[in-house]
Design brief:
The complex is a heterodimer of chains A (385) and B (263). Chain A is of the alpha+beta class. Helix content of chain A is 53%, strand content 15%. Chain A contains eleven helices and ten strands. Chain A is globular, with a radius of gyration of 21 Å. Chain B is α/β, with parallel strands linked by helices and 263 residues long. Chain B has one domain: HUPs (Rossmann fold), CATH 3.40.50. Chain B has seven helices and eleven strands. Chain B is globular. The chains are: A alpha+beta (385), B alpha/beta (263).
Chain lengths: 385, 263
């Protein structure tokens, strides 16, 4: 389907696809098997200017928005969802800075993210704060010379590998979520260490790790925006980043669909390729419908975000929920079509199926996001009542 | 360091089809690419520039559409481009091609090093590089797999030979052709692609080069393609019967009768 992308957007998409096919494809199985962080690919992405895509031009970026980020993420995810999330998480790690940072803060950090010299990461989740994100315990006590951080962040994507972390911590613990603030913490700050690296079901090349803060002193100028706004900043961030998870889902589902068609086309049973059987055809057709519908919704949501609309919560939640549900279903069916072979690690679809599940969980579980959508439906109804 | 890279645009396939009526290459539906061997030449030129400063000028002879190959070279880091395009250049063999390239090189700011791919995937002759060096009357080294040292007026390279390698030094300027072992070509960057879209492509014809029409293109070629055809596959193998001695005797008789052995 023609999504009326600009020439520049097509260029970005085509180059991302080339990197995915030429550099990621040959190593994806190995990265998954060894659970190794894809530094070589990060370098390829950096050399190709992919980390510049989402950074404003004045900070050495290319000035793209949510849609451009989605296009790159989708193409990478079509080949390896673990690489895609590694890339997208760097954007997530600096989006709060881009929105609330001062010129000086942006000048200090963004050019290194744009060049790919440094990766970013975002940290809100804690052992006590998953869906209940407001229930964070990490504190950032105001002391002479800055903020003193104490606490543990859990399941942080790019943890240990990123150099620049946006951390949500309580600067006023008496006020709960209203006492939360967003603070930049650089790797190698004394008192900032990394806990265990998680062993995961899928997206195994991506690093997921604990961040441990023990009397970690960060300078006052690392605070993003005003103190007490951290929770709101985080919610706004996710409103804008969720189409990116949707794009990850679209790419993954697209890759699974292609793998299933390839297999069904060459697999012969009862003297004919199984793609000639209507039972298989209808499964493939349903997969294709899901992928295209998800893509259309993700691109529309991304464009809505890029339009500067004030409230994008519903649209971005819808795009993430629909696309991730589609990715889980499509990858599951891809394994079904590939049969016994599909269950084996020699074929790519078993990895795709494992990679898909996280999409329904992170950046807001699909249940929490349905709540968010429903809250808006109720609010609108109440207003018109 | 002033580096010139010569490249050629070729059909992006090895499954070339010939029109049986006209004996010419079927170009419809075939994407054109930079000759793969030339991508190593571009990469090496760009690496030398990044390390030692200077500029990389890419040059190609071909129809107007060869401009795309030059733009791609810009996206990979080349600085300046020259497209040698003129009706009079059409039908050139390697000699006329090398002659035209040599005229263009003489018109450029004097290069320190000229880099070519070792051969093309369509013509496969590997002749243009050495011919260009002859016409410019400068040293030539083929199959370079590593540049060991390069400085003002001096170059030392490793070149591949059948059973190992040779280390050769030469004065500059010189022409080298590079083997694929020399580097891993980079992918283009987004900024490179965007720059390449607006890059100025310098186009020179016979007027700009100031050459005689009889020395270029088909007229200037010392060889001509009379016919292009697929060789007939003929199966004439014969299994000799009998004892070992009988078979050897039969074989020798056959060879003798064919005039292939004496005595």
């Amino acid at each position: 389907m023609d999504y009326f992308l600009t020439e520049e957007q097509k260029t970005i998409r085509d180059l991302a696809r080339r990197i995915a096919e030429e550099r990621v494809l040959p190593v994806r199985a190995e990265l998954d098997e060894k659970e190794e962080f894809p530094w070589d690919i990060v370098k390829d992405l950096a050399d190709a200017d992919m980390f510049r895509v989402f950074i404003p031009e004045e900070y050495e970026g290319l000035g793209g928005g949510c849609l451009e980020l989605c296009l790159v993420t989708e193409e990478l995810s079509r080949v390896c969802s673990g690489v895609a999330v590694t890339y997208a998480a760097s954007a997530l790690g600096c989006m709060t800075l881009m929105e609330y940072g001062t010129g000086e803060q942006k000048k200090k950090y963004l050019p290194d993210i744009a060049s790919g010299k440094k990766l970013g990461a975002f940290a809100i989740t804690e052992p006590t704060a998953g869906s209940d994100a407001a229930n964070i315990k990490t504190t950032a006590e105001k002391v002479e010379g800055g903020y003193l951080l104490n606490g543990t962040k859990q399941f942080i994507t790019n943890g240990g590998e990123a150099a620049i972390y946006t951390v949500i911590a309580l600067t006023d613990k008496t006020r709960g979520a209203r006492g939360a603030s967003a603070i930049i913490v650089e790797k190698d700050t004394p008192g900032f260490t990394f806990g265990k690296k998680e062993k995961k079901l899928g997206i195994r090349t991506s690093a997921t790790r604990e961040l441990v803060f023990k009397d970690c002193l960060v300078p006052e100028e690392n605070l993003l925006g005003r103190p007490g706004l951290g929770f709101i900043q985080a919610m706004r961030l996710f409103d804008k980043s969720r189409p990116g998870i949707g794009a990850q889902a679209v790419g993954l589902a697209q890759g699974a669909l292609e793998a299933a068609v390839d297999y069904a086309d060459q697999r012969v049973q009862f003297d004919q390729p199984i793609i000639t059987f209507q039972a298989v055809q209808h499964m493939l057709a349903d997969m294709a419908i899901q992928v295209e519908a998800a893509r259309a919704l993700v691109y529309a949501a991304a464009r809505h975000v890029d339009s500067g609309a004030k409230n994008v919560t519903e649209e971005s939640a819808m795009s993430k929920v629909f696309a991730s549900d589609a990715a889980v279903k499509v990858t599951l069916d891809a394994v079904q079509i590939c049969g016994g072979s599909g269950y084996m690690r020699d074929y790519p679809v078993e990895k795709m199926m494992r990679d898909a599940k996280i999409l329904q969980i992170y950046e807001g579980t699909n249940q929490i996001l349905r709540n968010a959508i429903a809250i808006n439906l109720r609010k609108r109804k109440a207003r018109t009542a | 360091m002033n580096i010139v890279v010569c490249l050629k645009q070729v059909p992006g396939t090895t499954e070339v089809r010939i029109d049986p009526e006209t004996n010419t290459l079927v170009r419809e539906g075939i994407e054109n690419i930079i000759n793969p061997f030339d991508t190593y030449a571009i990469e090496e030129g760009v690496r030398l520039k990044e390390k030692h400063g200077g500029k990389v000028t890419v040059i190609t002879m071909g129809p107007a559409q060869a401009e795309a190959a030059l733009r791609e070279a810009v996206s990979l880091g080349a600085d300046e481009t020259v497209l040698l395009s003129d009706r009079a250049f059409a039908g050139a063999d390697t000699w006329a091609t090398a002659f035209t390239l040599s005229c263009a090189v003489k018109k450029l700011e004097k290069p320190d090093l000229i880099i070519c791919g070792r051969q093309t995937i369509d013509g496969d002759t590997g002749q243009v590089g050495p011919e260009l060096a002859e016409m410019l009357d400068i040293p030539f080294i083929a199959y370079v797999s590593r540049i060991e040292e390069i400085k003002e007026g001096y170059l030392r390279v490793r070149r591949m030979v059948e059973e190992g390698h040779e280390v050769i030094e030469t004065t500059l300027p010189a022409v080298i052709t590079v083997a694929k072992e020399i580097n891993v070509p980079r992918l283009p960057s987004l900024r490179g692609i965007m720059k390449s879209k607006s890059a100025k492509i310098e186009t020179w014809g016979i007027k700009e080069l100031g050459v005689d029409e009889s020395k270029v293109g088909l007229a200037g070629s010392s060889t001509q393609v009379i016919k292009v055809f697929f060789p007939q596959r003929v199966h004439q193998a014969e299994i000799l019967e009998g004892t070992l001695e009988e078979r050897v005797d039969t074989l020798i008789d056959r060879l003798r009768n064919a005039g292939l052995c004496q005595g």
